[in-house]
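Morning. Coffee machine broken again, so started the prediction first thing and wrote up yesterday's gels while waiting. Chain of 432 residues, entered below exactly as on the submission form.
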Amino acid sequence: MKELNIGICGLGTVGSGVFDVLSSNSRIMFEKSSCEINIVHIATRSDNHSCDVGDIQYSKDVFQVAKDPNVDLVVELIGGTDVAFELVMLAISNKKHVVTANKALIAEFGSIILEAAMKADVNVAFEASVAGGIPVLKGIREGLVANKINWLAGIINGTTNFILSEMSVRKTPFEVILAEAQSKGYAEADPTFDVEGIDASQKLAILASLSFGIPLSVSEFFVEGITSILLEDVSFAKELGFTIKHIGICREINGRLEARVHPALIPDSSLLAHVNGVSNAVMVNSDAVDTTLFYGPGAGSKATASSVIADIIDVAKSRESACFSSLGYPIDRLKRKDIMNIEDIECGFYIRFVALDKAGVLSEITTIMANASVSIESIIQRDHVSKIDHVNVVIITSKIKHSTLDPVVKKIKKLKNVVDEIVLIRVEHLDQ
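Came back before lunch.
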């Protein structure tokens, strides 16, 4: 009978979930893999966990797991990058397979780790690093292996999706919903990683590498968070038939890549517009299958554990044959592609001006836009709630480069009847 001995590093939310699911579903996993999966070593720096580890070897030092000759596979669930990187590289040097849920580690050091794994003839798998329990990486790598990926777009951070969803449904401002997200455990005490788009950009880096065969990197990606999204813009978007979502997009155009993370208005008819709460979803458009949607819980103890254990079983099955590549491409075949500057990417734009309620103001604005050949798809004018004699002018443009639109917006901003800062949010028609 085949056996796979694993060591778990970290018994936090995900680590505890992995321990519980492995313990309760061991028979199912044996039937599907013909391999007995045994937890033989656990290491955690804190005793604050609910797992009954019994007589399993227990350490405070995670490096002891990577050194343990009885361990075949190290499950890295400690988070962060410094210690995690050292742990993973030590495990690889000791000829141990690795499974991790650490998107920051893979986005920053993935190329180094995968090259070392290839040389050591071991597997490194990281399905749980993107979208928690949703098998999106396997779906792209295996289910869509025959396809050329044209583009992908997704809601890949549950915290920002919860905040924007609640702002829309409850008509409650960002700061109030953020505080609620923190109280529910959806957001950290310092929410910067989520609300500024850093987490989503790391996940997009993994998706982009997997889909387009580029090295793992976020350095050239455009990243923008949701902290500047105002409740009135959420309301105007809804009135115009759109929903504001924080999305990651990667699209190949003539050998160049768009790679960006930012808030965007998407039509209510889009599948992503109906992904609410802390859920994640990724749309993938390819040449043979057209558009598919991967949807489900983007976080959570057992949901993420499901993806971690799926990787463990993949390793268990692959040990009798050649090692697999978690990116679908051998590490030495990844090729750098030109990442387009955000200024040169075409999309629609939502523009909101606050102007004095005087005759001719709207005409001045539209004349400037017409003279610059900026096409307007929708326009509304509403009284400003908090300022007497002020109005909100909201415009949705057709596709245009930001570099073309920017001087137009600057001209409008100089009009004597236009006051306050101008709000600019991208509009994405993902099916076009």
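The domain at 344-427 is CATH 3.30.70.260 (Alpha-Beta Plaits). Going to sketch it on the whiteboard this afternoon.
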